[in-house]
Amino acid sequence: GENVEQHPSTLSVQEGDSAVIKCTYSDSASNYFPWYKQELGKGPQLIIDIRSNVGEKKDQRIAVTLNKTAKHFSLHITETQPEDSAVYFCAASKGLTGGGNKLTFGTGTQLKVEL
Amino acid sequence: GAGVSQSPRYKVAKRGQDVALRCDPISGHVSLFWYQQALGQGPEFLTYFQNEAQLDKSGLPSDRFFAERPEGSVSTLKIQRTQQEDSAVYLCASSGGTEAFFGQGTRLTVV
Q1: Which of A49, A89, B11, B107 sits at a 20 to 30 Å CA gap from B90?
Q2: How do residues B16-38 score in pLDDT, each as one tens digit?
Q3: How far apart are CA B8 and CA B11, in angstroms?
Q4: Hey, are the CB atoms on B48 and A100 less than 8 Å from each other?
Q5: What is the pLDDT of residues B41-94, one digit of tens each?
Q6: Of A25, A47, A24, nearest in space to A34 by CA
Q7: Which string of DSSP letters, residue by residue, matches A77-109?
Q8: Which 36-75 residues of chain B touch chain A by CB within 8 A?
Q9: Does B33 touch chain A (CB under 8 A)?
Q10: Per-residue pLDDT averaged across B91-109, rounded?
């Protein structure tokens, strides 16, 4: 089955700096890669996703890149703010080919944005 | 509804007790998923429904875990004879296409 690895496990940045979280996946058939933000005591919240036919996607301060050949994808947050502090999870699935959207998650990155 | 709703938010069960966790998906969403999230870990897939049909239950850890969605909307995850290792947050997600939206989860503590 699919295996997703995520690094780093913790990341501390100064407010205004950029943060980068990297993930690799094992199953070349995976074609959908969402990123979730999870705050304490809450469920994961979808913040951005990318499909396998696209190399990069941006949404304001958040961007995701995908390298299908190397089987890795990354989350980039620019101009970080204290409210960006949370745990971030990457995930992978074969959702675009039907059969549901069973997600395999990485182990999470605790991002702390310091003032 | 506006989002995925799960109840109860917290559940404390004595070892050996049966529990039932409820999920109300986003109205009209065909797909419903259950995940288990241990402390400090990412969610792990348990089972998947398309309408009322349970199409994948490969992630259920034992036959003590049972899920149903009889009318294709609300779903219940039942755990029989709870054990300490069942302590976790149980997350429900629903999807109307590719994106999956999660509820806040039920934190189960088995004592």
Answers
A1: A49
A2: 999 999 999 999 999 999 999 99
A3: 7
A4: yes
A5: 999 999 999 999 999 999 999 999 999 999 999 999 999 999 999 999 999 999
A6: A47
A7: E-S--GGG-EEEEEEEB-GGGSS----EE---E
A8: 40-45, 48, 50, 55-56
A9: yes
A10: 94
State the virtual CA torsion across A73, A79, A83, A84 in degrees, nearest 10: 10
Helices (H) and strands (E) in chain B, counts: 0, 11
pLDDT interval class at A52 (50, 70, 90): confident
Residues of A in contact with B31 (CB under 8 A): 100-101
Using alpha carbons only, give the angle A84, B9, B13 rounded to the nearest 5 degrees. Answer: 130
Residue A97 pLDDT > 60? no
CA distance A21 to A10: 10
Contact B102 A36 (CB under 8 A): yes
Tell the residue number behind the tokens 């101009």, with chain if given.
A79
Give, rounded to a whole angstrom, the gap between the first and last alpha carbons of chain B.
34
- pLDDT at residue number B91: 98
Mean pLDDT over all residues of chain A? 93
